[in-house]
Amino acid sequence: MFRKAIMQHLVQSIGTVSSPYTQKFGIPRQPQLVAQARICITLNAEFSADCVRGLDGFEYIWVQFLFHDAVQEGWSEMVRPPRLGGKKKMGVFATRSPHRPNHLGLSLLPLERVEIVNGQVRIWCSGGDLLDGTPVLDIKPYIPFVEAKPDARAGFVQGAPELLKVVWQAAAQQCGLDAETQLLIESSIAQDPRPAYQNLPERVYGMEIAGWNVHFRIVDKTAYIEGCAPCKSSLHLK
């Protein structure tokens, strides 16, 4: 009861994310893995330009948010990190799983620009790993001299994930994508969005991204994009 009261009265959304990722499947598992994934954080009307004065002087920002699409799934004390192949369990506080007691997330993102449109604050970032519609809870500037620790131990997470090779099949090449969206799709699929326990070369996976339905198969270390068509409600971020 006490925790619920805290969430209701002390923790409130300050804005909302617009993202090319309109479903959980396909979102990069960490920020900055797909540089082409541009997001826009639109602050609520009560937050004026004064709230972001000086923010554009920083190159990166911390974005604290709510894993809103995972709240109804609850949380687990032990989870299976994809980096361990989905076969070994770790404590939830030793992972970045969305299935946490308070479902809070934290991403470090490159800041592209801050703009004011008709009095509304918009903050643009690249390398996003956030679902479209994500509630943002806080924004802080990244300060390198206190927060950069490149030599720190990283537990079971060693190095960047291995990327898949991405091949467009002939039929998918005819869908009329612009070069920027094509690169976004390629870079997202190269991260291998499948659950760690799945390795089914005959399965065709589908993901919605930047207003497109994309279908692909993965055989060994290569992803074959077999189809691409506009979603019914197309999303375009400028």
Automatic annotation (TrEMBL):
Annotated source species: Kingella denitrificans ATCC 33394
UniProt xrefs under PANTHER family: TRNA (ADENINE(37)-N6)-METHYLTRANSFERASE
Record's protein name: Methyltransferase, YaeB family
Superkingdom field: Bacteria
SUPFAM superfamilies xrefs: YaeB-like (SSF118196)
Pfam families documented for this protein: TrmO_C, TrmO_N
Signal peptide coordinates: none
Record domain TsaA-like: where: 11-151
Family: Belongs to the tRNA methyltransferase O family.
GO molecular function, one term: methyltransferase activity
Sorted UniProt keywords: Methyltransferase, S-adenosyl-L-methionine, Transferase
Biological process according to GO: methylation
